[in-house]
Amino acid sequence: MLPELFPGFESRRIETDGASIHVRVGGRGPAVVCLHGYPQTHACWHKVAGALAERFTVVLPDLRGYGDSTGPKSCDKHLAYSKRAMAADVVAVMRALGHERFQVVGHDRGARVGYRLVLDHPDRVERFVSLDVVPTYDAWADISRENAIGRFHWSFLARPAPFPETMIGRDPVFFMEYLFAQWCGTRDLSPFAEGAMAHYRMSYSKPEVIHACCEDYRAGAGIDVELDAADLEVGRKIACPTLVLWGGSRAHGVVHKPIETWRRWCTNVIGEPVECGHFLPEEAPAETLARLLPFLSGKA
User: How many CB atoms lie within 10 A of CB 134?
Assistant: First the structure.
């Protein structure tokens, strides 16, 4: 049995268009949905969820195909794993839980789902927080000799099936833990609680999860970039207040000029680095909360 990381939180399963989403819900007050990244699950929020739940209703889904959520079969354009489809899942989950408007905190792939959600459903989102990413369009444009090693997985995972699935499937835990260590400020697994690692290892050992993750990145190399480009072309921007945080001590795959990049996409954005690597909620939970709580409370 996996360790319980969210005491007092309820487990729910909500059916959306093409997916069955596993979600944890706790706390009371205004709604905040927290979206995890690759190759993690909702467990990545376990060090900050309790403090958030003291002021907010906290909703922690597994993205479609990740963790204990299921996802549909995909097509040649990987539309089923586009951030547009994942964002629609979040809207459906929040509506099922009784929240027509809410705030969004996203890390890594979850932040990509988050900004697509704000662009596609601006009436739903009151505030948005992005942790350690720039939009997908800019991330692809920014790949250089300096950061290509840290982002090798972008092109690797986007290769046609079954190549990456087969390679990762030989030893999925090794691959996952290698990425964790590469992206951490400490360059090892020390920031991760063993209970959380148990959740990640079990999830990423499932062939269907490995495949869904690859589909996520295939969409990220195609339809997601196309949607971003279309928004840029017509000048569509994120109108809600936006907070951008990033890891200031990340060794590989560093996010270049994050606040300058986000200003192209947002009408109202603030941001700063946190002294850690990529995994802000687990490497620096206190520092991350110190920035999240005032912003989500409307005091920053």
Answer: 25
Q: Are 141 and 234 in contact (CB under 8 A)?
A: no
d(CA 181, CA 190): 9
In this predicted model, what pLDDT tens digit does every residue of 76-114 receive, in sequence order? Answer: 999 999 999 999 999 999 999 999 999 999 999 999 999
Give the SS3 label for residue 32.
strand
Q: What is the pTM of this model?
A: 0.97
Can you tell me whether residue 46 is helix, strand or coil?
coil
Using alpha carbons, list the distances in angstroms from residue 202 to 1, 178, 195.
10, 16, 11
Pairing of strands 31-35, 57-61: parallel
pLDDT tens readout for residues 13-72: 999 999 999 999 999 999 999 999 999 999 999 999 999 999 999 999 999 999 999 999
Hey, what are 70's tokens? 């299921």
Q: How far is the CA of 157 from the CAs of 35, 131, 160, 246, in angstroms? A: 20, 21, 8, 23
Tokens of 261: 């990049």
**What does the alpha-carbon distance between residue 123 and residue 101 come to, in Å, rounded to a whole number?**
7
Would you call 107 a catalytic residue per the annotation? no
Alpha-carbon span 72 to 231, nearest angstrom: 26
For residues 236 and 123, give the distance between their C-alpha atoms in angstroms, rounded to a whole number. 14
Instruction: Given the residues 62, 68, 108, 228, select the one marked as catalytic.
Output: 108
Question: Which residues, including other chains, have CB under 8 Å from residue 79's CB and lie 6 or more apart?
Answer: 85, 219, 223
Distances (CA, A) of 20 to 62, 115, 249: 10, 22, 36
108 belongs to the catalytic site? yes
